[in-house]
Design a protein that fits this description.
146 residues; alpha+beta; Arc Repressor Mutant, subunit A; Dna Ligase, domain 1; three-stranded mixed sheet; two-stranded antiparallel sheet; 6 helices; binds zinc ion
Length: 146
């Protein structure tokens, strides 16, 4: 990553919030930007542990909302009782289709979704930080098996 890096953005956010910037938080952030897929906390925890970092799940759970709030990471979907995430900074906004049978997740992009968000924002005077759009159903392969 060469442009205004995710680390700089996060540092600035933490500073403005008057929070403490810790090496653990930065390690979590850097690892998230190495994962080019959706992930959950267990997966992130294991990746960090396998590299010798001793960062607790509690620390990860406390750091994720901060990364979401500053627009670097988003929640993608909830499955098996826990949330799945992805980093979004540096990526085009996109939506997801999720197969209820094989659990395959496909990404797609449609500018109309952002238009809807923009319209809502103007009409209601709110500030939209993130658009989450999810389609649930059966993928083409699973439909055939029925
Ligand atoms: Zn399927
Ligand atoms: Zn995605």
């Amino acid at each position: 990553m060469l442009q205004a890096s995710e680390v700089e953005i996060f540092r600035e956010f933490i500073r403005k919030r008057g929070l403490r910037y810790t090496p653990e938080r930065e390690t979590i952030l850097r690892e998230i930007f190495k994962i080019h897929d959706h992930f959950d906390v267990d997966e992130l925890y294991l990746r960090l542990r396998n590299q010798g970092y001793r960062i607790s799940k509690a620390t990860i759970y406390r750091t994720l909302p901060l990364l979401i709030e500053c627009g670097l990471v988003q929640e993608v979907y909830h499955e098996d009782g826990h949330m799945h995430y992805e980093h979004i900074y540096g990526h085009e906004p996109h939506a997801h289709f999720r197969c209820l049978s094989c659990r395959r997740v496909e990404e797609f992009r449609d500018e109309r979704l952002e238009e809807v968000a923009r319209e809502f924002q103007e009409k209601h005077g709110v500030q939209i930080k993130m658009v989450r759009y999810e389609l649930l159903g059966y993928c083409a392969a699973c439909r055939k098996e029925e």
